[in-house]
Amino acid sequence: MRIIYNLMRSNTGSAGIMAIIAMVLLGTVGAAHIALSSTEGRLASNFRDGTAAQYLAEDGALWARIQLDINRGNNSTLISDTDSAAGHSYTSATKNINTPTAGSYTVIIKRDATDSANASKRQIISTGTANGASRQVVMTVTLASTGSSGLYSYAGYGGNSLIIGNSSSIIINGNVGTNSNATQWGGAVKGNLDYYGSFTGNYAGTGKKNPITTRLSIAAIIPIIPTIPSSTDVLVAPTPPSLNNLAYYKNQSGSKSLNSSISNGSGGPYTNMSGTYYATSYLDTGNTTFTIPAGSSAVIYADGNIQLKSGTVINGDVTLIANGYVQLDGATLASTNGTINIYAKSNIYIKNSSSVSASNITMWGGSNVAISETSTINGSGGLVSICANTGSFQDSYNGTDAYSAISAGNIMIWAGTAVDLSNHCRFVATGGSVIICANSSYFHDSYDGSTTNAAISGNNIAIWANTAVDLSNNCRFVANNGSAKIYANSGYFHLNGSSAVNAQDITIMTGDMAGLYGGSLTATNTTKLYAKTNFDLSSGSQISGNALVRAGGKIALNSGTSPNTVYIAGGDAQVASSVTASGPIYAVGNLEFDGGTINYNLAVMQSLGLTAGASPFAVKTIKNQNN
Predict the structure, then answer these.
(1) How does 440-478 read in b/e, with b if 16+ C-beta sit within 10 Å?
(2) Phi, psi at residue 244, to the nearest 5°?
(3) pTM of the model
(4) Distance between CA atoms of 477 and 495, rounded to whole angstroms?
(5) Chain segment 157-191, per-residue pLDDT in tens
(6) Are 562 and 133 in contact (CB under 8 A)?
């Protein structure tokens, strides 16, 4: 105490105390920054692992549903093993091996607590785990009837009528039937032709022409069209940042003012920046370098717009906050293993070969966010999160295909209205997921680069649009080790040109129609496409792998090939002469063959849970939760 007292009584002592205080403050700020950087890294990893765990939980639930439906009525022990309050547990092998999102799922299947009478209900509890993160999906299902409906023993069945046209190109490898009148003028049926009403024409087949005495209840047998998940089930809108006023930033301890216009380093130097800086109106910079040392961070606020023009470079962890818009016009923002945040009350524009690179990048625009020309966003294996709060997100990157418009470990984009991607725009999530939400409008991707590159790639891809989802030109979605999920809530899904979706599992759900107009769907496991109204398959289109297409209205196979796809129409169905190959096709309404080859494959039917003697079960309840 005497030493401090003596120091206080002298000028030299005062300087010493000030030095001690400064050192303590700097140490506190440094420790806080280290803690903040560590927290942001953990948040990115937690998001990645949580997303992977959710997908694994969903995969486990799907596996359980398929197993229950395949084994119902086959005297399988799976049904009896799960017919108790405790049920039975099943654990998968490790999925996504040798990736950052490796994990597995554990599924418990047990008798539902509300089902004490006939043992026809099961509860599925699927828990996905990845790197310590776990997510859980819980659903209750009613098992399939074990009656002798037999719908799925047919290669084709029409509820109102069956018409086989006068064409030698019609080849049906399996049985066909109808609940009403049948007509055959040509083609070949390599099986029986069953009909309830009358037969007209000339039967040509290897089986029998059989009148039947019992109609099939097709509408009751075919699978229901599931409800499309809400946008928040896919991606919750990011929380708006705190956009305080000028007085707040001026009153921050140690805050410093900036000139509104900075060119060629004027008013500098801008080295060793740390803490809060503010411009009382706009901030306009060019040909100036701002340096924030490692271990420090800076907040730069402008009470108007922020424009960082050509030659502007910001090195280090920085947060830009504008009371108007933020525009990067040839600027470079870079933070090695750090964080960059850009917040604007109105719009964010990234243009003219601007680049933003850091481990974690957050952009939040009160209205629109637009990235154009050869500008790039590089999340360096971390998280890139972009929000256009009340407006649209647009990326029209037109650089070389060798580079990505946005790359990161995980990419999240949320737009209040539409998401529009064009030119050579590519999103690459290495080891993670790409999740995009167009909350009140459409999603459109018209990538026109090389077909050898993917427009969007990652372990998992999820797209949700309130209206339409439209992929055109050479747009390719590739989910390397997981699923691709596309939801058009109240609109259509179109796959045009040479566009493609490739994944282990594909799910597409629409609130209107769906159509493949030259595009392709390829799933290692299964594709499930549900259209509320109609479905079209046109010239050059292809569905590879086992697939189910369920439409509430008409199914029109005009061309293309889909040898292992099962089609189920709530209305009419028609197969045109230029269809190369198709799986079985069922219609509640009229079924008409004008050409094409139809193949019945029991293994495909079983993989989709469509067995000859049973109808698919109904999903009664489902919920997602953190475990």
Answers:
(1) bbbbbbbbbbeeebbbbbbbbbbbbbbbbbbbbbbbbbb
(2) -80, 170
(3) 0.77
(4) 11
(5) 999 999 999 999 999 999 999 999 999 999 999 99
(6) no
